[in-house]
Amino acid sequence: MKAIIITGISRGLGKAFFDILKDEQAYLVCISRSFADYQITLAEKSDKIELLKFDLSNVKDLLSGLKNSKTLEKSDFEELVFINNAGVIIPIGKVGDIDKEEISKSININFTSPALMTNFLLGYCNKNKTKLKIINISTGAADKPFEGWSVYCSTKAAAKMFFDVIAEEKKATVENVDPGVLNTSMQKEIRDADESDFPLVKNFEDLEKKGELKEPEKVAFSILQKSEII
């Protein structure tokens, strides 16, 4: 039996992961700041779905929550899978004009929380002799600078490098996955940006108008299948 930990399941790609994995023969630990009603209902009826409500922008209680996870109290898992999915594009704007609180939130969600969780999970797996697989949902912005995305690009690049180092240390199996441009609420946040803050906004508006955004459900299935999670 395996355990799968997913962050950010309330919408978009994370929700699609949840919808696919809820029927798999695996334990699910879902970390999110909110949950859909049907997700709560399913968790109440299942002994294999655990919902942990945390805002990843506030790292204070994150590790204590993982340590108290009823699922992770078990130690007989053959494999633990960590899907680092949660991420934010905000703040969008030029350096010098960005709200400092938004910078801190983005750093915590996109980098600090995943790093802390992974460090904890590696310790857990070493102690229990459990294999660890990490699926990091990355982005092309981790490899290329975009004007107006200084915080997003840098935090996603930092996360990717963090996981690359783990792979280099042979501590876990790591996959950094760029899912492409998805039809999610994050894309709406990008399209809602002012052109003065993000000069490429019209490119993303065109993608939506042309119907070139990928559907999260298809992308989630493809990622899980290629990673041999399903």
- What's the oligomerization state? single chain
Q: Which sheet architecture does the biggest sheet show?
A: 6 strands, parallel
Q: Low-confidence segments, ≥5 residues, pLDDT <50?
A: none
Bulk shape: globular
Intertermini distance: 13 Å
Radius of gyration: 17 Å
Overview of the structural elements:
The protein has 230 residues and is of the alpha/beta class. It is built from 8 helices and 6 strands. It has a 6-stranded parallel β-sheet with strand order 3-2-1-4-5-6, with helices on both faces. The radius of gyration is 17 Å and the shape is globular. The mean pLDDT is 97.
Concise structural overview:
The chain is an alpha/beta fold.
Structure keywords:
230 residues, globular, single chain, 43% helix, Rossmann fold, alpha/beta
Strand and helix map with partners:
Blueprint: E1 2-7, H1 12-21, E2 26-32, H2 37-45, E3 49-53, H3 62-67, E4 79-84, H4 100-128, E5 131-137, H5 150-168, E6 173-177, H6 185-191, H7 201-209, H8 216-226
